[in-house]
Amino acid sequence: MKQATLAIVPLLFLTACGGENDTPLQRDNSTTPDTPNTQTPNTGSDCGADFSAERSLNKFEFSGVFWQVEGERLQSKPEFRFYSDSRSLGATHTLSSDKTLCLLAASVFGSLNAETWDGDNNASFNKGELYYYAPEFKVKTELPEIASLTDWRSKGQPEKVSLPLSSANLTIHYRDKDNHLITLGDSQTNLNPIILSCNQAEFDISLTLQQVANTALATLDPSYCETQTVGSNVETFCLSAGFSQDIRLESCKFDLTKVALPDQRGNKTSVQVSGLLKFSDMNAELQIIDIDL
């Protein structure tokens, strides 16, 4: 690895933003969300012709990753995730059906109310304990095409590169009273691949040198790392890539997509939903505009 001298160290931060009210609101079903101009045609016949659901996804997290030596299968990718936590504000739903799955979908996508666990006791919930539903979207890009730290510098040390999304997933979590996200069963069965069509085709990925603990070096590709003298200490820094927090997203839509809905007993049932995401000031409004049981 190369030797360099640096006095001031740039760091990549993890940011999570939320509201100020720690108590989930009770749902207000007296109003119907505005009908989006760009929505997928709403048949909604399985849960009534006027089925819709909307809720706020208020928790935004941006994760930076390093180039690793384990290979493509285990290589982490730049990731941006957003979901609803205890500070989420605003939810509503409309349906004209008393089918169990319709009521469940309305609770998952259009309510902030606490639900009561009715399944067997487990490591997360005891019978009669309160929980909440927490939808989460997770999007990723590939790593930028940079062969090494030397290659990055030969390209002018770009601070950002633009890349398209490589994957997106929608997961429905349980959330306990302490705000922990919980998924029961195999984690892979909880991932619902989804195709997002957004107002922008590419996203800015920030590139920065980040200090790395010595205990983590064994897993990182040394061609993306160097040592730097900071004061009287010699530290290791490696190139990191992560979503720019200035994502400039305005909206995304998705057509009918299979989603596994968890219920109060820990069972999962697959339905298809389509909807919209509208973004503003570190908040996303999820609107479900069609459902197919």
- Overall residue-averaged pLDDT value: 84
The major beta sheet can be summarized as: 13 strands, mixed
Question: Which percent range describes the beta-strand content?
Answer: 35-45%
Which word captures the global form?
A: elongated
Tell how many strands the DSSP assignment holds. Answer: 19
Question: What order do the SSEs take from the amino end to the carboxyl end, as H and E?
Answer: EEEEEEHEEHEEEEEEEEEEE
Low-pLDDT ranges? 1-44
What gyration radius follows from the Cα positions, in whole Å?
22 Å
Percent range for helical residues? under 10%
Distance between the termini: 57 Å
Number of helices: 2
Secondary-structure-based class equals: mainly beta
Structure characterization notes:
The chain is mostly beta strands. Helices cover 6% and strands 41% of the residues. It has helices at residues 100-110, 149-154; strands at residues 2-5, 16-17, 52-57, 59-66, 79-83, 91-94, 115-116, 130-140, 160-163, 167-175, 181-182, 192-193, 197-198, 203-212, 225-230, 233-243, 251-262, 268-279, 284-292. Strands 1, 2, 4, 5, 7, 8, 9, 10, 11, 12, 14, 15 and 16 form a 13-stranded mixed beta sheet that branches. The protein starts with a strand and ends with a strand.
What labels would you give this structure?
19 strands, 2 helices, 6% helix, 293 residues, elongated
